[in-house]
Amino acid sequence: MLPNAKVARLCYKPSVPKLVDAERRRRELAEAVWRVIRRDGVAAASVRAVAREAGTSMGALRHWFATQDELLHFAMTLVVERARARGQAAAAAGGPPAARLLRVLEETLPLDEERRAETEVWLALTARALVDPALAELRDRSAAELHAFCTQVVRALVDEGVARADLDVDLEGERLHAVVDGLAVHAVTRPSALPPARTREVLAAHLAALGDTP
């Protein structure tokens, strides 16, 4: 017969505390910020409004974000992180270099509902960044990252023989960055004039033109 203490140890199963996936919860709250911004504008995205949208209390929300500024900064950060993750996945998918690079660039454009939501939020917060130094810093870092990638795209196309060898890579990188930014803005503000298929067509045509004889 087992001693009582040993029986107790065998029967006892320590309770496992419910672990909260912190990043998942922060993303859920950021998505609530997105919904408020898309529906009511940035000015309406207060802690109270976001808590109501997320179906939680202000106290619970402040456990994750103490202020509206923290909420907005993370909401903007999430846009960047999601676009970057999709781009990395597209780059790893394989295929001809030109087609693969086109797919990566497309991940920054509002070609479906998810990316449209991200772009709308990004543009709204970019306007806010004019008077918000923290958002401005994030905006500038993201722009520098996209600009560097656009320059890398042009250089890769030249190296692959898809684009002309005599191109000014830095200049064409600037142009490509401007095209991508412009398409994002117009696809959101003029969706009937620039639907997803047309947006893809314009971007693909720009890349193809890099190989045209002057």
Q: Please, could you describe this protein's structure?
A:
GO terms for molecular function: DNA-binding transcription factor activity; transcription cis-regulatory region binding. Keywords: DNA-binding, Repressor, Transcription, Transcription regulation. It comes from Geodermatophilus poikilotrophus. InterPro entries: BetI_C, Homeodomain-like_sf, HTH-type_TetR-like_transc_reg, HTH_TetR, Tet_transcr_reg_TetR-rel_C_sf. This is DNA-binding transcriptional regulator YbjK. The protein is mostly helical. The chain has a domain at about 80-210: Tetracycline Repressor, domain 2, CATH 1.10.357. The protein is about 70% helix and about 0% strand. It has 10 helices and no strands. The protein has helices at about 5-10, 20-40, 45-55, 60-65, 70-90, 95-105, 115-130, 135-160, 170-190, 195-210. Helix 2 (about 20-40) crosses helix 5 (about 70-90), helix 2 packs across helix 7 (about 115-130) and helix 3 crosses helix 4 (about 60-65). Residues about 1-20 have low confidence and may be disordered.
